[in-house]
Design goal:
Length: 76
Amino acid sequence: MMTTWHVYMEIAAAERSSDHELESMFQGSAHQIRASLAIMKAQGMEVIPCEGCDNRDKTGRCQGHEEDTTAADKAA
């Protein structure tokens, strides 16, 4: 078994970013991005989760994705 973990960014770190940095990392205007960050924080999230992660805790952190690698190991 192998566990894959998605990366994430702390909301607090994103909030400290300049408008230009936010707009280069995310889609939308800095105002829209900051509003989204505020909504996420109000919902109890602490991190911006990776898109496509379907196994997160209430703070947004990836809880890992286990993958059975035994078949791949045998084929190698």
